Please model this.
Amino acid sequence: MRRVYGFHGGIHPAENKHQSLGSRIRVAGIPRQLILPLSQHIGAPARPVVAVGDRVLKGQMIAEPGGRVSVPLHAPTSGHVSAIEERPIPHPSGFPAPCIVIDSDGQDEWAPLRGVANYRDCEATELLELIRNAGIAGMGGAGFPTAIKLAGKPGQSIKTLIINGTECEPYITADDILMRERADDIVAGIAILQHILQPQEILLGVEDNKPEAIAALQAAAAGSAIEVVRFPTKYPSGGEKQLIEILTGQQVPSGGLPGDLGIVCQNVGTAVAVRDAICHGRPLISRITTVTGDAVDSPQNFEVLLGTPMQYLLDLAGLHPERCERLVMGGPMMGFTVTTPQAPVVKTTNCILAPTTEELPPPPPAQPCIRCGLCAEACPASLLPQQLFWFAQGKEFEKLEQHNLFDCIECGACSWVCPSHIPLVQYYRASKAEILQQRREHAKSEQARLRFEARQARLAQEEEEREAKRAARKAAAEKRAALAEQGGEEDPIQAAIERARAKKAAQQAGDGTAVTPVKASPEAALRQKLAKSEQRLAQSIASGEDAKIVSALEATVQRLKDKLAEAEAAATETGAD
Amino acid sequence: MALMRVSSPHAHGTYSTGMVMRQVLLATVPGVFVLTLFFGFGTLVNVLWACIVGLACESVALLLRGRPLAFYLKDCSALVTCVLLGIALPPYAPWWLIAVGVAASILMAKQLYGGLGYNPFNPAMVGYVVLLISFPVQMTAWAPPRGLGEVPGLWEALQACFLPARYDAVTMATPLDVLRQNQGLLLEDLWAQTPQFGRWAGVGWEWVNLAFLAGGLWLLYRRIFTWHAPVAMLASLALMAALFYDGGSSSSGGSPLFHLLSGATMFGAFFIITDPVSSAVSVRGRLVFGALIGVLVYLIRVWGNYPDAVAFAVLIANFAAPFIDHYTQPRVYGHDKSGGNG
Model:
């Protein structure tokens, strides 16, 4: 038995998983209309490559990646594109977003698919390209493009591949049922990931509340390099950082990635999607989704086409709308409420939860924090949630960052234990958003400051140049006057040269962009230097720099002043010649 | 169907502040029972009268502050403060003494600072210290325990409280007083000559302390608070007593067991310093907080000039709590010990 490690905090909420595990995975079928949001992953939204009215085949690409961190989108069934417009999507913001709408024709006609006969003959980069083209993004919930995550940073080698079969959120059983029923597919997918990453060890982590899944995986993984590791059930052990700590005893550095430790994590569902893409050339067009909660008659898992309206699934499961006050995508700890059941199933929809009011009662009004510290005991990141709450209320953003607000994974354990029913996570989310907004604004104003300073410097330089020219002209005029005084006519050649020079200088001064330094007299150059030094000195005094720097600058200014005086004296001498 | 929009998490544990407070109240029952057994009905009258005055004060303050009355009263925090103060006061204290103490606790130490959760000092201990400084005579008059004197009945207890002029109090020095005023006797001789001493500590007091210990252990079992602060306080108190035991000489401060089972030690360790609002928050912080109180209790008991030391020790440690918190922040996931990323 491999040693497993613990992580700080965690909670044991009621699991409520048995409800949806009574039956096998059911194929949900083809709804009349599919709604496919262009952004179902983290990164740039996909760009449509079809037009309204086009006929599309099942598996055909209908939107291309919108950037490096992006994935394409494929038609989940055959039919016609009936609209490309904003529709309600499942998103915490509740805002609608651009979607491709397909009216299915019921024929479910596949586009030609081309799988790889033997992936072992393929280069890793080739396989990554196939994974990206299949539109695969993390199926566990976050939806990060899988190919990018597998590629990692250049030159980084992966020691440990971790497959996440934890599914620690209450109610959700999509991964559990997948592990029970399709363990062979998971193992086949992991073998492909193994070929791509060449890790030294492969750990498949499952909580010990899923004995059937563990047995199925162990049978399927027999003889492979995969080690199925079971560990005690505790929320949130399925969080990537927590799972890494459980399996390896290491912590991902704050602000870093698992790759920094030579670790990559992938969800079991992602492994199956990779297998489908490589072995059968089948893009990601369906997924397993749990539909559960007391407001449905028969909670169960569906294999559902992406874009299927949630209403369609809820009807299949027997929803009683009158019993249901909220609809949650994801679990009761980290899921978010969707505003309408017309919102579609997307690549990250692992669960649709339709609870009754008795089951998940609306939050009671918050009482004052009594600093009982239960939240600090429960926090898997070892933060001090009650202090963060205090600072969040006072909008003390610096303190929040000092207390590592950004290490919060928003798992909700603190809110769950809070005896005063304070919506702590909501405070943290809001504060994070405000801090990020402030950072953006700060970056903007910083840029504006730099631009302003550059402009000031340029104007000052132009002014100096003009001053230098004026001085030169004055000197020339004095010289001419001296010549005239000395008698006789002005030298006509000299005068012509002077005129040309003055004209050129005027031109240069006229267009300020000219950067060619004026061949001015030595004292003008000195004056320029002096002005710069003085400016620098004033700046350093104003910004309270080190006394040493200030005195050095003072010395420079003094030296330049002396030199300038010398040069001027010399100039007057030559002028007097 | 109209759908609610709520932020996650949607599930919630079963704890509530009111429930926590009610369990604390329940856990005081064995202690109050033993106090009543040994010292008569005085403590019970104290507690009941304190609760009446306390609820009145809390209600008035909430009304003045424009807060919903039922919502805040049902958190039971005022009741906890009053019960704890009632237990801490000497039995057969006059009604006005209790009322002044409760008013200081609820109005001054709690509501003036913003109510539950915002008080930097333990309200019950503020009330106690206000009384101790203002009315030292009444505050140091402890009745003799059963067996060493007449224990008044319920009627006398009520009379003592509400008609103090008609009641002649019988008082006796507490074991802690006796020990502090010991001038030249070896501990052994003092023990033999003074009737106040029992098997391990004072007559009655040892059982009172054991009863509060039992209540505290039940709260620990119910996970109302963690073991850190109480254990640290008891350990540091015992350690101090062991260091200065001096072999039981005439200048001895008393044995560790004597200190653990005397005065308000157990009551303080499990019911006073575990008040989360005014204590340090992190696990390490609570260890430091508890240990500091243990040391202070010993210092004040042995070299100070007060009958018991828990109230002062707790208030001083309350001052230090934010400071302790600042230096005992836990290491956050993914950060190294120095606080950087590692």
Notes: Chain A touches chain B through 73 residues (CB under 8 Å). The longest helix of chain A spans residues 424-486.
